[in-house]
Amino acid sequence: MLTPDAIDIFLDHALDGVNLAHLRTLIGDLFAKQPDVAQVRVRTLPGSSAGLSSLSLVLAQPITHDGAEYHPVAIRIGQAAAIAAEYQNYTQYVEPFTRAERPQLHATSAYGGLAALSYAYLGSVDAPIQTLRDYLWQHPDQQRALTAIRNLFTDTLAGSGGQNGWHMNARLFANQCPGWFYNRVLPPVLSLKNVRVGHGGVDAQAVKSLLARADQPEARSLLGQRITLGVCAGYPLLQEVEAQPMDAGLVRLRLHLLAGNPMPAGIYRPLDPVAARIELIIPAEDVAHVRAALLQEAPLEAQVVQTRYTLLYDQIERHGLRQVENLVGQNLADPLAIYATLLDTPISLHTSIIHGDLNLGNILMREYGPNGIGGVTAWLIDFDQTRPGGHTVFDLVKLEMEYKLHILSHRLRSRVDVLRLEAALHAALTNPSDVERYLDRDHELVRAYEFILRLRQLALKPVKGGGPRPYEYYLGLIGYGLAALKYRNLYDQGRERWVQPQARIEPLASVAYLSAAYAATVIEQIRKLETWPNQVQAAPRPLRRHINPRGCGVGGSLHPLYQASLRRSSIGGF
C-alpha cells in the first residue's frame, strides 16, 4: 500500500499555506486503496489558479511498481469545510443529474484542518489535460474549444432526460430582485469594524434606508459612522456564510441579510432573497461572542469602514477605468449610477443549478484521437459554489468576462477595441447590418466576436418553449462586470503568476468596467426584446452554418435577431 514516503512531488509553485508533509499525507491517502501504485507525481496544472483561493488544483500521475502509468487524476486541496462543500455539491447536483462526460469522484482524504478529493476522467486517451485558459493560449483556432463548450452545456450538463435543473432546463420565477443573487458576488454592501452587541429592536425602515444609502453617492457620508443592524420585520435572518482569518489577529466574518426566509430544498427554486452582504472585521477572540449574538438575533452596533459604492467608485477612479475615447459619438453610461436600481427592481428571472465559478481554469480540456483529430472534450472542476436557485445566465456571463479579461486584454489593441466589440455584439441583437462596420474586418475582433456570440447563444438558447431573455444577460454583464473590479489580480500590483506579465490593455479591470458600462448604456434598449420567447416558440430556425466559412456555427434554436445577424453578416472567411 502506498505511503507518503513513496510519493515524489514536483511542484513548480508551492500551494499557499499547505505544508509539504501534510500534502504528501493527503495525496497518499487518496491512493491508499490502490496497492499497485508505487508513486504519484504531482504538478500544478498550467493555467489553473492553484494557491489563489481556498481550494487549489493539482494534477497527479499514479505510477505502478513496474513503471506503468495510470491516467492522471485532478486533486482539489483546501480547508476541510470548503472541500466538504464541494463533495456535497458534487454528489447532490452533479453526479445524479449530468451525463457520463463528467469528472468521476475518485477518493477523499483529510489531515488536520485540510482535506482533498480527487476526480478521475473517463476515456483512455493519452493527451494531457489542459485548462481552457491554457488551451486558448496555445490554439489559435477557437472552433474546437467552442465545440467542446457547446457539448458541455448541451449534452453533459443537459443530462439524459433534460429534466435536471441545470442551464438547459431553467425555470422562470416572478418577482425576483436580481440583487438577491448578485449580492453574493458583488463587494459587501457594508464593511464594519468595532462591532458591539446591541440591545433592543431594529427599525426595518432604517435598515432599508441604510442599505439604499450604501449603494449611492451619498454613501461616503456613512464612512466612520456607527450604525445598528440586525433582524427585524422585513429582514428575518442575518446569517454567517464565511469566516476568513486576517493579519494582526483579526477575522473577516461575512454575513447575509435576508429579505425573506431561505428557499426550500429542491433543484427548482427561485433566488434566495439575499438583501445584503455584510462584512464584519473583528478580533478573533470576539468571534464566539458575535456568533452567539447572531443566534440570539441581537442587533449589532458597528462603525462603517467601507460601503459597496465607495469601494467600487474608488477602484474606478484610482485606476482610471473610465478613460476611453467615445465610440461613434456614443457616450457611455455610468454603471454605478444605475446598478442599485436595476438590481433592486423585482422582475421575472430564470433560475437553475449553476456551477457558480465558471472561470477559464475550471474548465478542463483534453484532445482525443491521433494528433487531436477526434476533437476536444471539456469537463468542469471546482463545485464548491455549485447550487440550485442561481441566475441561469451567470455561468456564461462569468465565462465571457473571464475570456475578455484574461485573453482579449492581450489580443485586442486598446480600450476602444473593447467598445467596438461590445457594440458589434449588441448590434447582433438590434441592428445586424452594423456588425461588420464595428468589427471593420479586424482579425482579432472577429475572433472575439465569434467566440462571445457563441457563449451568448448558449446562454439564451430556448429550451422547451422559452429561455432567459437578453435583458437578463445584460443585467448579468452589469452585475458581474462591477463585481470583478474587486479582484486584486486585475490590477498591476496584484498580478498573479498565471496571468501574463503585461497585457495590451491595462489594468485588466478596465475591460470589466467597459463591459458593464456598455451594458448599462444599452440595457433599456434591450428591455424592448421581451417578446422573444413567443417568437421562438412560433418559428424556431436552425443556424445556417454555411454563412461563416470558418466553421464557428452552433446549431439549435436561437433568438431570431441572432439568426438574422449571422445570415446577413459576411465577417467570416478571411
Describe the structure.
With 574 residues, the protein is an alpha+beta fold. The protein contains 17 helices and 17 strands. The termini are far apart. Residues 531-558 and 566-574 have low confidence and may be disordered.
The general outline is: globular
Number of domains: 3
Number of strands: 17
Give the strand order of the largest sheet, numbering strands 1, 2, ... along the chain: 9-13-8-12-11-10
- In percent terms, what proportion of residues is strand? 15-25%
Radius of gyration, taken over Cα atoms and rounded to an integer in Å: 24 Å
Discrete helix count: 17
Low-confidence stretches: 531-558, 566-574
What oligomerization state is this entry in? single chain
Query: What separation lies between the terminal Cα atoms?
Result: 58 Å
Largest sheet: 6 strands, mixed
**Global mean pLDDT:** 84
* Helicity level: 25-40%
Structural class of the secondary elements?
alpha+beta
Main features:
single chain; 574 residues; alpha+beta; Phosphorylase Kinase, domain 1; 3 domains; 6-stranded mixed beta sheet; 5-stranded antiparallel beta sheet; 17 helices; 34% helix; globular; disordered C terminus
